[in-house]
Design brief:
By secondary structure, this protein is an alpha+beta fold. 32% of the residues lie in helices and 18% in strands. It has five helices and five strands. Strands 3-4-5 form a three-stranded mixed beta sheet. Strands 1-2 form a two-stranded antiparallel ribbon.
Length: 143
């Protein structure tokens, strides 16, 4: 199965200049824990609820802080025409729950979540990925 067959296409983006307050409100409205950050028609980062808590609130930054100060700049992504199994393996290996989906022109066209994988015929791989994501460690590990 290809990623394009099960990804979420209706994705809300935010700007690096948006305030954390605005992004938190957008996350609440979208019932999402992460939003892609776009600038000049390009994906430049991701902002997660964890970024807001750990990189902002815990560091004494206020709600008017721009997203660019706390967003994750290292973006892992997949292409729409890749196999879902490889995306699930990537999520598992990197211990991440969401991957932006790009077309071959590197324009964002969607997002793939563990829930999307779980809802597909690849559910056993989603279970394995979820197990690995839930293990301690990964990019946001607290030392």
């Amino acid at each position: 199965m290809k990623i394009s067959e099960c990804m979420s296409r209706n994705v809300r983006l935010c700007s690096p200049d948006d305030s954390l307050r605005d992004v938190a409100q957008a996350m609440k409205e979208a019932d999402a824990g992460a939003l892609p950050v776009g600038e000049n028609d390009r994906l430049v980062g991701m902002i997660t609820d964890r970024d807001i808590v750990v990189r902002s609130v815990a560091s004494g930054k206020g709600p008017d802080t721009p997203v660019r100060e706390v967003m994750t700049r290292e973006i892992h992504f997949v292409f729409e025409d890749e196999d879902l199994a490889s995306a699930s393996d990537k999520m598992s290996r990197l211990k991440i729950r969401r991957l932006p989906v790009l077309n071959r022109e590197k324009r964002m066209i969607g997002i793939l979540s563990l829930g999307d994988v779980w809802s597909s015929e690849e559910a056993p791989q989603a279970a394995a990925a979820l197990h690995d994501v839930a293990q301690q460690g990964g990019p946001h590990m607290q030392a």
